[in-house]
Amino acid sequence: MYKPDIIQYISLNHYLILGAALFAIGLIGVMVRKNIIIVFMCIELMLNAVNLILAATSTYYSDSGGQVMVFFTMAVAAAEVSVGLAIIVMMYKNIHSLNIDLFNRLKG
Amino acid sequence: MNIDYIFYLLTALTIICATMVVVSKHPIRSVLFLVATFFCISAHYILLNAQFLALVNIVVYAGAIMVLFLFVIMFLNLNKEVERNKSILYWLGAIVSAGCIFLMLVSSVGKVALTNGNIEKENYTLGLVENIGMSLYTDYLFPMEICSVLFLVAMIGVVLLSRKENKFTTNTVSNV
């Protein structure tokens, strides 16, 4: 049976560490940046890190559940981005800023 | 060319592009680096023989979501800088705390004995479009339908959010 070369030469730990690194970079962006659109993009980056880990684990363990889970994660991310960007546009019409400190009036 | 060179090259490219997303000042540059990151992740999917995921990642993320981001950034016309010059202390605190989480994840990876559990039913072609489609429409049919309901709810929510504010308030007042 066909076996991808990556499984023979690269261990699963490499993909897990790469996913952890991408997740940490996205987390730094979420904590540091003030522009809410960039914060949103860093959340997308964190989602992709988790997707990469899921796909790698699914391939190494020969189980299709991980890749189907990645598909559903992408669908949820698309819905989340459309609603979130609509909220950002509406808030920008009200407060004329994208500073995330001013978005605390979204509460309640 | 050996495949581990390709893997390490792609990994370095992914990390660099992801770092540039966080570091770069202008949001449009950030979006473009994020698109580059998504292409690198798609290349990783192809290396993992998950071709359906690679295609969907390019079409959905780089094609739809990033275009939405670019559209909103250009729509809001962000010429003035949102961010003040932050002190180095913010960056230091964020890097230290994210590094702690990274070390925690890596140490947990080192502890787990990752052996291939079901070696007898190994199947490396399940990332192809045909096999993923069979899996989606037989085993995971119900979550798939729930996903369409989720999209409907998201669409209704976006339409409701983007209505005119004053018309919305007068309608609710008249309804009350």
Cα Rg of chain B = 22 Å
Helical residue percent of chain A?
over 70%
- pLDDT < 50 stretches of chain A: none
Residue stretches of chain B low in confidence (pLDDT < 50, at least 5 long) are: none
- Quaternary state of the chains: heterodimer
Secondary structure: elements and pairs:
The complex is a heterodimer of chains A (about 110) and B (about 180).
Chain A lengths: L4 H5 L2 H21 L3 H26 L3 H31 L13
Chain B lengths: L2 H21 L3 H21 L3 H26 L11 H24 L17 H10 L2 H21 L3 H11 L1
List keywords for this structure.
heterodimer, A: 108 residues, mainly alpha, Helix Hairpins, 4 helices, elongated, B: 176 residues, Four Helix Bundle (Hemerythrin (Met), subunit A), 7 helices
Description:
The complex is a heterodimer of chains A (108) and B (176). With 108 residues, chain A is mostly helical. Chain A has a single domain (5-96), classed as Helix Hairpins, CATH 1.10.287.3510. Chain A is 77% helix and 0% strand. In chain A, helix 2 packs antiparallel against helix 3 and helix 3 packs antiparallel against helix 4 (65-95). The longest helix of chain A is centred in the C-terminal third of the chain and has 31 residues, at 65-95. The radius of gyration of chain A is 18 Å and the shape is elongated. By secondary structure, chain B is an all-alpha fold. Among the domains of chain B are: 1-78, NADH-ubiquinone/plastoquinone oxidoreductase chain 6, subunit NuoJ (Four Helix Bundle (Hemerythrin (Met), subunit A)), CATH 1.20.120.1200; 140-176. Chain B is 76% helix and 0% strand. Chain B has helices at residues 3-23, 27-47, 51-76, 88-111, 129-138, 141-161, 165-175. In chain B, helix 1 runs antiparallel to helix 2 and helix 2 runs antiparallel to helix 3 (51-76). Chain B is globular. Chain B starts with a helix and ends with a helix. Chains A and B meet through helix 1, helix 2, helix 3 and helix 4 of A and helix 1, helix 2, helix 3, helix 4 and helix 5 of B.
